[in-house]
Amino acid sequence: MNAAPETRVVHAACPHDCPDTCAMLVTVENGRAVRVQGDPEHPTTNGALCTKVSRYPERTYHPERVLTPLKRIGPKGRGEFVPVSWDEALETIAARLKAIAARDPEAILPYSYAGTMGLVQGESMAARFFNKLGASRLDRTICASAGSEALLATYGIKAGMHVEHFAESRLILIWGSNSITSNLHFWTIAQAAKRQGAKLVCIDPRRTETAEKCHEHLALRPGSDGALALALMHELIAHDWLDHDYLERYVDGWPALRERALQWPAERAAAVCGLTVEQIRGLARDYGTTQPAAIRLNYGMQRVHGGGSAVRLIALLPCLTGAWRHRAGGLLLSASGWFAGRRDDAWLQRPDLLAGRQPRTINMSTIGDDLLREASPGFGPRIEALVVYNSNPVAVAPESRKVVAGFAREDLFTVVLEHFLTDTADHADFVLPATTQLEHWDAHTAYGHTYALLNKPAIEALGEARSNAAIFRALAERMGFDDPCFADDDETLARRAFLADRVDLGSLEQRGWAKLDVADAPFAKGFPTPSGKAVVDVPGLGVPDHVPNHECAETTPELAARFPLAMISPPARHFLNSTFVNVKSLRAVEGEPLLEIHPDDAAARGIADGAEVRVFNERGEYRCAAAVSTRARPGVVVGLGVWWRKLGRDGTNVNELTHQRLTDIGRAPSFYDCLVEVAAA
Length: 681
Ligand SMILES: Nc1nc2c(c(=O)[nH]1)N[C@H]1C(S)=C(S)[C@@H](COP(=O)(O)OP(=O)(O)OC[C@H]3O[C@@H](n4cnc5c(=O)[nH]c(N)nc54)[C@H](O)[C@@H]3O)O[C@H]1N2
Ligand SMILES: Nc1nc2c(c(=O)[nH]1)N[C@H]1C(S)=C(S)[C@@H](COP(=O)(O)OP(=O)(O)OC[C@H]3O[C@@H](n4cnc5c(=O)[nH]c(N)nc54)[C@H](O)[C@@H]3O)O[C@H]1N2
Ligand code: SF4
Ligand SMILES: [Mo]
Fold this sequence. Notes:
CATH architecture of the largest domain: 3-Layer(aba) Sandwich
Distance between the termini: 64 Å
CATH topology of the largest domain: Rossmann fold
Bound molecules: ligand MGD, iron/sulfur cluster, molybdenum atom
Structural class: alpha/beta
Strand order of the largest sheet: 5-4-17-16-15-6
Shape: globular
Radius of gyration: 25 Å
Helix content: 25-40%
Mean pLDDT: 96
Number of strands: 27
Number of domains: 4
C-alpha cells in the first residue's frame, strides 16, 4: 500500500535584492521542496511571485549546485577544482588567514552584497567574524548608496510612502524604475490606481515594458534627471502651484532652492534632457495640479555621476506641492529606514569585537583598482586575502578588465561561499558550498514595503552545504575565537533579529510576516531631521544642482566625439543581477546578451537586427547581438545585464565597458554614465 506523501507548507521569504521581498509558501513533499508560491494573505505579495523566483526549486536542485567544498587545481579563472572535506578546507583557510592576520589583518577583505538580503545569512556571523579578526571593512556601495545618502540628507531618514497607498494616488510618476521587471508588486498597485483613473507617467531613457504601459513616457537622456526636477520646480514656481504653508513649516532653505530653480527654465532643461519644452511643461502641469501625486523613484536614475544630487532634487518636489500631506502623495525610494537600523545592528554584528581598532575601509565599487594596488601609506597593505559571499563581483563590478586581473593574482588567497561556480567562484582557491533560502533560517526587512519576514528552513541542506552563518561559525572556531557570540545558532540569530523593531512577533511566527508600525502619511507634519524640516542646503553638499555625467559631450567632448553613444545596462527581466543566468528555463527566455540600439544609430553604422556587434571604449570591448529597436532612444544604447561572462559570446559582459568613477554622493558606481561606440563585428 502506498503511503500518502507527507506534505507540509513552510512560511518563507524571497531572499533576493528586490524591493518586493515577497512572502513565500514552500510546499514540501517527503522532504523535497516541490513548489514555491506567493503568500495570498500577505498584502503586497498578494499570492504572486515573479517568474524567476517561481523557479526557485529548479535553482535549488540544479545539477550544477556546488555541494562539497572545492579546492582549486587549475589556473585562476579556469574553474578547475577537486572536492575536499570540510575539515581540510576549514583547516587550510584558517591557517592562511591566521598567517596573514599575524602580519596585518587589514590585508584580509570580506566582499559581500545582497545575494541574500537576509539579516542572518547577510551580515551577522560574518560581521562578527571580520570584526573579531580586525579585517579591512567593506563600503557596500554597489547599488543604492547615492540615493540612500541623498534621501537621508534630505529627509533625515531613508524612508517614504507605504507602497500600498499608491493605489489611491491620482498621478504616479514612475521615475528611473522599470517596475514590471524589478518592482512587480508595485506595478500591480499602480494598475489598481490606473483603474481608478490615475495617470501614470514613466521617466526613463529606455522604452521599457513599463514605459509602454504608462499614459506617458519621457525618454530623457541618462543622467539628466536633476535638470528635469529643477525645471519642474521652475514651472511650479511660475504658476504658483506651491503649498506655501507646507514650505514655510517643513522645508529648511526654500529661498535658496527657489533661487536655484529659477535658473532652470524649461528651455534650458529640455536641451540637457533631450526632451521637448512641451513635455516638461505638461509634466509640471500634471504634477502641480493633481493631488494626491506620488513618485515611485528607483535606483536606476542614481547610477550616474550626479545621481545623489538628482535624488535630493526629486525628493524635494513633493515638498513644494505639499503632496506629503496625503498618505497617497509623496515619494518612495526606499522603506528600509523604517526598520530601526537593523542592518547595522550591534547585537547581530558586534562591532565591539573590534576592541578599539579602526581598520581601513575599501569601497566595493573600486575593487578592480584596489586589488591591483601595492601597499602604500595612504592605502595600507596590499590585499592578500578575499572572502566573498552573497556576491559575484567578477560579473557585477565595474571595469571588469581590472577586476578580472585582480582576481587572477596568483598571490591573492580567495575563498568564495557560493551555490554555483560563478565567474567569481572560478577564481577561488576554495569554494565553500552555501545553502539556499529553502535550507536555512533567516529574518528579512524590506526596502519596498513595511513588513518584516521570518524565513524558516523548508528542507534539509543539500549535500554538504552549510549556511553562511554556519560557515563563519566553523571558521571562527578554527581561528580560536572563543567569544560566546560565536556559538549563537542560526535560529537564535533569526529570532532575535527583530526584538528591537516595532513588530508583532506572534504574527511573524505564525504567518511569517508582520507589519511595522509606521504612520499613514509619515511626513505630513515634517521630517525626522534636527529642525523637523526637509533640508535643502546640506552641510558639506550645499544647495543641489544638476551635475552632468562623468562622460558626456558637456564634460568630455573629445571622448564623446570618439564614443558618441551613451550606454545604460539595466537588469534583464528574468535574471536578478547575475543570479538565475545559469537557470536554463530563464536563460531561454532572455536568449542571449543583447545591445538595443535605435534604428537611426544602427543604420548610421550599417548594423542589422540580430547582427553581432562590437561595443567598445577605451576600457574594453564586448561582443553581443544587436537588437535594433525603438526601445532605445537615439544616442543611447542599452546593454541588458548582468550576464555571466562565461555565458556571453566572447567571455565578457557589459561591465567590460563601465568605469570606476563614483557618484557625487554615496561613493557609488556610475554604471549608467558610460560612453561607447558600436560597430558591426
Ligand atoms: N528582474 C529583476 N529585478 C530586479 C533586479 C534584476 O536584476 N532583475 N535587480 C534588483 C536590484 S539589485 C535593484 S537595485 C533593483 C533595480 O531596479 P531599479 O531601481 O528600478 O533600477 P534599474 O533597474 O537599474 O533601472 C530602472 C530603470 O531606470 C532607467 N534608467 C537608466 N538610467 C537612467 C537615468 O539616468 N534616468 C532615469 N530616469 N532612468 C534611468 C533604466 O533604463 C531602467 O529601466 O531591482 C531589483 N529587482
Ligand atoms: N552593468 C551593470 N552592473 C551592475 C548593475 C547594473 O544594473 N548594470 N547592477 C548593480 C547592482 S544594482 C547590484 S545590487 C549588484 C549586484 O551584485 P551582487 O550582489 O553580486 O548580486 P548577484 O549578481 O545577484 O550575485 C549574488 C550571488 O550571491 C549568491 N548567493 C545567493 N544567496 C546566497 C547565500 O545564501 N549564500 C551565499 N554564500 N551566496 C549566495 C548567488 O548565487 C549569486 O551568485 O550588481 C551591480 N552591477
Ligand atoms: S525577486 Fe522580487 S518579485 Fe520576485 S519573488 Fe523575490 S521579492 Fe518577489
Ligand atoms: Mo541593486
